[in-house]
Design brief:
The chain is α+β, with helices and mostly antiparallel strands and 64 residues long. 34% of the residues lie in helices and 30% in strands.
């Protein structure tokens, strides 16, 4: 399980957008988003840069 910290999420719409973006990446599964802690976790072996690019495309930033 990979966990990332995402800057910019503030509401349930943000959670839905983030979940959709991550689930669209081939190889990612079991996506969980924690709005309070601003974290996303997922299973799958994928290049972290691909994840960062997908998150940036929807207006947020992976910070950790």
């Amino acid at each position: 399980m990979t966990t990332i910290l995402i800057k910019g999420m503030s509401c349930q719409h943000c959670v839905a957008s983030t979940r959709k973006a991550l689930e669209a990446i081939p190889g990612i599964s079991d996506v969980n988003i924690d709005l309070i802690q601003k974290k996303a976790s997922f299973s799958g072996a994928v290049d972290l840069q691909v994840v960062k690019d997908a998150i940036a495309k929807i207006g947020f930033e992976v910070v950790g």
